[in-house]
Amino acid sequence: MRVAEMDWRMIEDWVRNDDRAVLPLGSTEQHAGLSLLTDAILAERVAVEAAEPLGIPVFPAIPFGLAPYFQAYPGSITLRVATLCSVVSDVLDSLKRSGFRRIVIVNGHGGNQPAAALAQEWMMDNPDCRVRFHDWWRAPRTFAQVQATDRVASHGSWMENFPWTRLPTTPADEAKEMVDTDRLKTLPPFEARTLLEDGNFGGRTQRGDNELMAIWNIAVEETRAMLETW
Question: Which keywords does this chain's UniProt record carry (predicted)?
């Protein structure tokens, strides 16, 4: 259940009987022809749909993450590693004070991995709590479905082109060769933009929505199963 649809009394009632909560973690960054908020939109939506039948509170997605390599693209925002870890740590502290002890971070951006290490460190200082860091798009069953659909899937490509991340200006289906991602990791922002051009790392820009929904349904089920069995 979205926290936006709850008041503080509802949270107080919830934690009397259950200590689970979900925190989506996203990013605001270029996604070629898709929304700048693609990572945050997808992380929050998969969290909400997974948690809804269970009644577990889902907090708003943290919309900013680590995206220094995209800083030559207008609208892309990055935090520093220390800042992201401080923000996530402060949020976890607040959730603990509210009574939550089992927290799932549903992550939508690969660059946010330092927050996973932070979660481990936070549990060292809070041994009565548990945090799980869940990269929803590369969980085993979900990633297997992506690969079964099209092995060439990347940042800004078809695999992130859902009806809720697509814009009226999103290009029709096109194909792009994969960039050299090893080289990309060595480049400063303006050179990275020159290499990437539109921002898509490679692959088709769009596939059928029926194929995307097959992936999405598995992602929701896989996330829900994790919440149920914890």
Answer: Hydrolase, Metal-binding, Zinc
Q: 86-117 in b/e burial notation, b at 16+ Cβ within 10 A?
A: ebbbebbeebbeeebbbbbbbbbbebbebbbe
Question: Using an 8 Å Cβ cutoff, are 2 and 8 in contact?
Answer: no
Segment 167-220, tens digit of pLDDT: 999 999 999 999 999 999 999 999 999 999 999 999 999 999 999 999 999 999
Question: Strands (DSSP E) along 120-179, which ranges?
Answer: 130-135, 175-176
CATH number at residue 48: 3.40.50.10310
Indicate the number of domains in the chain.
Answer: 1
Maximum pairwise Cα distance, the chain:
54
Q: What would the pLDDT profile of 37-67 be if each residue is shown by its tens digit?
A: 999 999 999 999 999 999 999 999 999 999 9
Angle between helices 209-229 and 38-51 (to 10 degrees): 60
